[in-house]
Write a structure and sequence with these properties.
By secondary structure, this protein is an alpha/beta fold. It is built from 9 helices and 11 strands. A hairpin with a 3-residue loop joins strand 10 and strand 11. Helix 6 crosses helix 7. It is globular and about 60 Å long.
Length: about 300
């Protein structure tokens, strides 16, 4: 059993980041598995130097230890090999559509606007996918994925229609999330993925990419989120209750105990006592009032 915690390096860790790290670690250790950290630092428009180290420092401060650290930006050859494989199947095409072009169309399961596969059939230039200067998409099979995660969440979709063909390489040359995570999970032999349910709508797309590339399909589980009082999820990019503020108020064990309680566990939770059945399904609001206040 191999699991992974895969935070984006777009800001300081917040309580939601550390909650996810704790749940991944408890689940893996309870089952005698390995737990990896993968620093998702491909988005050059949002990543800043130092945030990767800061995230690792926050995890160590919380008191949990992972078995390996993987830096996503160092994995370009593997990502490019996957694009070559999709190109060999005739599944890549350039796309000039913008987000504004999708607005007002069909809603996707993630709440955004579905891509209507408008540019399907557009051929690659003579130089192949590497010569594409617009977004690059992968044409998915028009097939339904039937899937229920380990917590009972129904993830079934026909992703090519409900979400639309995914971008796999952005116009700025950055490998897109949907492809990068699939390739990295395969290369790390990840068997189990525990993550927030905000990613749940992408699972069917990722499973379809796994099938196209001949990869193994991991088991999935999606957990609750910590929300801002106004209802938005906590976000590193927006500086939501940052790690520097948490460290000034708590010790690592104190915060770990608070996060465990928010997840329905005893404050002294350990892998031996961790129980998924006690973890709330509904999202939990968190605010700062001289300390963290949940609910």
């Amino acid at each position: 059993m191999i699991s992974r915690f895969a935070p984006s390096t777009t800001g300081e860790a917040h309580p939601g980041t550390l909650l996810s790290a704790l749940l991944v670690w408890l689940d893996a250790r309870q089952r005698g598995g390995r737990a990896l950290v993968r620093l998702e630092d491909l988005d050059t428009t949002r990543v800043k130097p130092g945030w990767s180290d800061a995230l690792l420092e926050a995890i160590a401060w919380l008191g949990i230890e992972f078995d390996e650290t993987i830096v996503q930006s160092r994995r370009a050859p593997a990502h490019e090999a996957a694009l070559d494989a999709l190109a060999a199947q005739g599944r890549l095409y350039p796309c000039t559509c913008s987000r504004a072009d999708r607005a007002g169309g069909r809603r996707a399961p993630d709440g955004g606007w579905a891509y209507l596969n408008t540019c399907r059939g557009t051929p690659l230039p003579s130089g192949g996918w590497r010569a594409v200067t617009s977004n690059l998409r992968a044409r998915l099979p028009d097939e339904r994925i039937e899937l229920v995660d380990e917590g009972g969440l129904d993830l079934s979709q026909t992703p090519a229609h409900e979400m639309g063909d995914p971008i796999v390489r952005r116009r700025d040359g950055v490998i897109a999330y949907q492809l990068a995570v699939v390739v990295d999970d395969e290369d790390s032999r990840v068997t189990d993925i525990v993550r927030g349910h905000d990613i749940a709508a992408s699972t069917a797309t990722q499973v379809m990419l796994q099938r196209l590339l001949g990869y193994a399909q991991p088991r999935y589980r999606h957990h609750f989120l910590l929300l801002e009082p106004q209802g938005d999820k906590l976000a590193k990019l927006h500086g939501s209750i940052p790690f520097s503020q948490l460290r000034a108020r708590y010790t690592g064990p104190e915060l770990c105990a608070l996060l465990a309680e928010a997840a329905g566990q005893p404050p002294d939770v350990s892998p031996a006592t961790f129980d998924w059945s006690l973890v709330p399904r509904a999202d939990v609001t968190v605010r700062w009032a001289d300390g963290l206040v949940f609910g």
